TrEMBL record:
InterPro entries for this protein: BIR6-like (IPR044578), PPR_rpt (IPR002885), TPR-like_helical_dom_sf (IPR011990)
Alphabetical list of PROSITE patterns matching this protein: PPR
PPR repeats: 287-321, 536-570
Domain of life: Eukaryota
BP GO annotations: RNA splicing
Protein name: Pentacotripeptide-repeat region of PRORP domain-containing protein
Keyword tags: Repeat
Entry annotated with the keyword Repeat: yes
Pfam families given in the database record: PPR
Organism: Salix brachista
C-alpha cells in the first residue's frame, strides 16, 4: 500500500489533532447548546493545560493565575484581561532585577501578572531607553509564548535596538522577522534611519533602504515556508492538505523543509508527517540540514523514541548532528530532568564529527551529582566518553563538581567522584586536596576524611603538608581538638616534622581559643622533645601570652628556654606586664633567670622591669626585686638614681598629704 507510513502516523496523531485555539475546525454542525457545553469543557481544559500539544514540553508557568492569557472567540468571558497599570512597572522591575528566566517567572507569578499582547507593547515602550532589559523581556516572551508577539511587537523591539545603536542585534532580529513573515514598518524604518544617519553608518543605511526597495517581506523561501507551515498547522493532515501544498508550486529544498519544520516546533507529529511525506512524495531528498531540523523538533520527552529513530536514520545516511541541534535538544532534556537521555545524546555527539566542548562535560557532571539519586553509572559514562576521545580531566572540572555537591549539601559524596575520575587517570592537585580535606573535617565527616586520605595514598600521590594542615584545620573549626591532635600525630608519623610547623600553629591556636593553653603547652613539649619539632616564633608568642593570661607563669617561663634552644629570640614583652601587675620579687628573679644563658640578663632588662613595677605603683615589689638582684645591678648608678627619684617622689607625696 503506497504511503503506508501515513496510516501509522495519522493513527498516532488523532489524540492530539484537536487544537484548542480553534476547537470547531473539524467538527460537524451541532446545536448551540452542545457547542456551548463543548466550549465550556475546552475552557476548563485550556486553563489546566494551556495548549494540549504543549503538555509534555513546557513546565507550567502559573500557580493560580497563568502568565499568558489565551483567547477563545466563542467565549466572551475569556477575553484578555485588562492589565493593571502597576503590572508594567512590576514586569520592568523584574527584568531589571533578575537575569535568570526562572527567577523572573517566579516573581511574576508571585504578583499574578498575566502577559498579554497589550502588556508586551506597554513594557517594551517603557524600556525604550534600556535595550538590554527590553531584549531580555522580548526573548523571554519569545521562549515562553511566541504567540504574544505580533508584527507590532517585533517592530517595537526592532526600533529599540536600532535607536540605541545595537546594529548587530538589529539586523539579527530583522532577519528573524523576515523568516517569520513580519515586515519592517515605515515608522520603525524612519526612526532607525535617523539614528543611522546621525551615527554615520552608511553601509547599514544603504542596507536598510535596500530592504524597503525590494520589500522587507518578499516571496522568498522564508515566505513560502511560512505559508506551508500555516497550511500544515491549521488543518488535519489529509489529501486536501497535500494538494494545497502542491498547489503552491513551490520548489522544495532542504532549506524550505528546514524552515517549515522550524515553524512546526510546537506540532511535532504534524512536523514528522510533513517530513516523511515530502521525501516519500519525491518532492525533496533529505540531507543533514533537514534531518537536524526534524531532530530539533522531536527532541522532547513525549517523542523520544521517534527522535532516536530519526537520529539513527540520519547517521546511517552519513549526516552529522549539528552543534545547534545538540545544544537545543540537550537544553530541553535538562529542563525536563531527562538526565539519562541527555547522557545518551552526549555520547552520540561525542562519537560524531561535531563534538561538544569540555564545558559541556563539566555541565553534565555537575547535573548528575546534584540529582536526587547520584547515579555514578551515568557519571562514569560521561567521563569515559570524554577521556576516550583524547581529552583529559582537569582541576577546574573537579572544582566545579565539588561546588555543585556543596550547594546541595552532598559534599560527603566527593570520594565517589574521586574514584570515578581516578579510573580515568585523574588525581586532584594540592589545592583541591586542601579544599576537600578541609570541607570533610569541618563538617565532621571523619570517616569520609579517612577514606579521602586512603584514596590519595592509593593514587600514588602523597598528600602534601598543606593538605594535612587543611584536615587539621577542619577538625579545629568543627571543635574536635582530639581528632585534630590525632590527625597531626598521623601526619608526623607519615611525613615527619620538616614541614609541620604551619599545621602545628593551627593546632596550638585552636587549643588557645578553647582556653586550653596548658594542653597546647604539653603538646609542644612532647613534639619538641620527642620528634624534634621546631615551632615558629609566632607559635611561641601566642602560647606564652595565653599561658600568662591563665596564670601559668612557670610554664610560660619554660618556653623561653625552648625558644633559645631553637635560636629564636625570646618573647619577653608579656612577662613585663604580668610581673608588674601580679608578680612578686621572686617572680621577677625567676624571669631574669629564665632569660639567662651564660650570665644574668643585661641591665636594660632589669631597668625595664623596675620601671614597670614603679609604673604599677608596686614599690615594695620593686625593692624586693632589687634586694635579690646581683650586686653589679644593685650598685649601678642608673638603678640607684631610679630608686632615689621614686623615693623622693613618694616622700613628697606623703608630706603633701600630711599638710
Amino acid at each position: 500500500m503506497r504511503h503506508s507510513w501515513r496510516i501509522f502516523l495519522y493513527r498516532n496523531y488523532q489524540r492530539s489533532s484537536i487544537k484548542i485555539s480553534n476547537p470547531f475546525q473539524v467538527l460537524p454542525k451541532h446545536s448551540p447548546s452542545l457547542l456551548r457545553s463543548l466550549s465550556s469543557s475546552l475552557h476548563t481544559l485550556a486553563l489546566q493545560n494551556c495548549h494540549f500539544s504543549e503538555t509534555h514540553q513546557k513546565p507550567k508557568l502559573y500557580n493560580k493565575t497563568p502568565l499568558f492569557a489565551r483567547n477563545f472567540s466563542s467565549e466572551s468571558s475569556l477575553v484578555e484581561p485588562t492589565n493593571d497599570p502597576d503590572h508594567v512597572l512590576l514586569v520592568c522591575d523584574a527584568f531589571t532585577k533578575f537575569d535568570e528566566f526562572d527567577d523572573i517567572s517566579k516573581e511574576l507569578e508571585l504578583h499574578s501578572v498575566v502577559i498579554s499582547h497589550d502588556l508586551v507593547l506597554k513594557v517594551l515602550k517603557s524600556l525604550e531607553s534600556k535595550p538590554e532589559v527590553a531584549k531580555r523581556f522580548f526573548d523571554w516572551v519569545l521562549e515562553k509564548d511566541s504567540g504574544r508577539l505580533s508584527s507590532k511587537s517585533y517592530n517595537c523591539m526592532l526600533g529599540i535596538l536600532g535607536v540605541n545603536g545595537l546594529v548587530v542585534e538589529f539586523w539579527d532580529l530583522a532577519d528573524k522577522m523576515k523568516i517569520n513573515g513580519h515586515g519592517v514598518s515605515g515608522v520603525t524604518r524612519d526612526r532607525v534611519q535617523e539614528k543611522f544617519e546621525k551615527e554615520g553608518l552608511k553601509d547599514d543605511l544603504e542596507k536598510l533602504k535596500g530592504v524597503f526597495a525590494r520589500g522587507s517581506v518578499d516571496n522568498s523561501v522564508e515566505k513560502i515556508g511560512l505559508r506551508v507551515s500555516r497550511i500544515v498547522r491549521n488543518r488535519v493532515w489529509g489529501e486536501d492538505v497535500e494538494g494545497e501544498i502542491k498547489h503552491l508550486c513551490a520548489e522544495f529544498s532542504s532549506d524550505l523543509v528546514k524552515i517549515v519544520l522550524e515553524h512546526l516546533v510546537m506540532e511535532p507529529m504534524k512536523a514528522l508527517i510533513f517530513f516523511r511525506w515530502v521525501e516519500d512524495s519525491g518532492l525533496c531528498k533529505h540531507d543533514g540540514r533537514s534531518y537536524n531540523a526534524m531532530a530539533r523538533v522531536l527532541g522532547r520527552e513525549d517523542y523520544i523514541d521517534r527522535f532516536w529513530k530519526v537520529i539513527d536514520e540520519m547517521k546511517s545516511k552519513g549526516f552529522e548532528m549539528e552543534t545547534g541541534t545538540f545544544d537545543t535538544v540537550l537544553a530541553r532534556f535538562m529542563s525536563r530532568k531527562m538526565i539519562k537521555e541527555a547522557i545518551d545524546l552526549y555520547e552520540f555527539a561525542m562519537n560524531g564529527a561535531n563534538k561538544p566542548s569540555a564545558k559541556c562535560c563539566t555541565y553534565l557532571l555537575r547535573k548528575i551529582v546534584v540529582g536526587k539519586q547520584m547515579d555514578m553509572v551515568l557519571f562514569s559514562r560521561v567521563v569515559e566518553v570524554f577521556t576516550g576521545n583524547g581529552n583529559v580531566l582537569t582541576d577546574p572540572m573537579l572544582d566545579a563538581v565539588l561546588k555543585a555537591l556543596t550547594n546541595v549539601g552532598k559534599f560527603g559524596e566527593c570520594n565517589k567522584v574521586l574514584r570515578e575520575m581516578k579510573v580515568a587517570g585523574f588525581v586532584a592537585s594540592g589545592n583541591l586536596q586542601r579544599k576537600i580535606a578541609f570541607g570533610l573535617t569541618r563538617a565532621g565527616m571523619n570517616d569520609e576524611a579517612n577514606e579521602f586520605v586512603d584514596h590519595m595514598e592509593s593514587s600514588g600521590r602523597d598528600m602534601s603538608y598543606k593538605a594535612w594542615a587543611s584536615l587539621i584545620e577542619g577538625h579545629c573549626v568543627s571543635g574536635d581538638l582530639e581528632k585534630a591532635s590525632d590527625c597531626f600525630k598521623i601526619m608526623i608519623e607519615k611525613k615527619g616534622v620538616s614541614g609541620a610547623r604551619y599545621a602545628f600553629e593551627l593546632l596550638v591556636n585552636a587549643y588557645c581559643c578553647k582556653n586550653r593553653a596548658m594542653d597546647a603547652c604539653n603538646l609542644l613539649h612532647d613534639y619538641v622533645c620527642q620528634n624534634h619539632l621546631c615551632p615558629w616564633q609566632t607559635t611561641y608568642k601566642v602560647l606564652i601570652s595565653k599561658l600568662l593570661v591563665q596564670g601559668a607563669f612557670k610554664d610560660a617561663l619554660n618556653l623561653l628556654g625552648l625558644m633559645q634552644s631553637h635560636g629564636i629570640p625570646p618573647h619577653i614583652d608579656p612577662f613585663f606586664e604580668f610581673v608588674s601587675k601580679s608578680g612578686t620579687g621572686d617572680d621577677a628573679i625567676a624571669f631574669m633567670n629564665a632569660m639567662t644563658t651564660k650570665k644574668f640578663p643585661s641591665i636594660s632588662v632589669a631597668l625595664r622591669l623596675f620601671k614597670a613595677l614603679f609604673k604599677a605603683q608596686r614599690h615594695d615589689e620593686a625593692q624586693d626585686f632589687l634586694s635579690k638582684c646581683p650586686i653589679y645591678i644593685r650598685n649601678r648608678a642608673d638603678v640607684l638614681n631610679l630608686f632615689s627619684s621614686k623615693k623622693f617622689s613618694k616622700d613628697t607625696t606623703t608630706t603633701t598629704v600630711s599638710v
